[in-house]
Amino acid sequence: VDTALEPRLSRLFSNRVIARYPAFEEFYGMEDAIEQIVSYLKHAAQGLEEKKQILYLLGPVGGGKSSLAERLKALMQR
């Protein structure tokens, strides 16, 4: 999504292009976190440094960490 095309989104995302992933379409407001997780998993799959690191979800209560972890688990079990 090119946020520069919509004034409301451009204020939120500083005119950046935000990737939307169909597997995570039910998660709103977590675009940056999801993009970081996808990047982490992509690099880990390529055998880069992330392969040796732990994915740690940190955030406030009710922030969607458990839901995101459950979605990742379901996707990995496919």
UniProtKB/TrEMBL annotation:
Keywords of the record: Kinase, Transferase
Entry superkingdom: Bacteria
Pfam families named among the record's database cross-references: AAA_PrkA
GO MF annotation terms: kinase activity
Residue ranges of every copy of the PrkA AAA domain listed in the record: 1-77
Protein name (Swiss-Prot/TrEMBL): Serine protein kinase, PrkA
Protein species of origin: Acinetobacter baumannii
